[in-house]
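Posting for a labmate who doesn't have an account.
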Amino acid sequence: MRKKIKCPHCGSESGLEHRIYMKGYDLYTGNGELEEEGVTEYNYRKTMTCRNCGKRVMTYEEFKRDYYVDE
């Protein structure tokens, strides 16, 4: 059974948010068809925040270690 994550600030069990930022490109041919796409930069915040109140709950590393389940 998975551990339930509860926000220590507001008590919500609605979940966590983790922001990811990506920069990339799309290249199109002269007739508008997608020719190539790619990601050139990938960054993420190091903290997980409550979806309800927006306050910091834990680091992303703590989340991966204690809660993340790869199915």
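Reply:
Got it, the structure tokens are right above this. The chain has one domain: 16-66.
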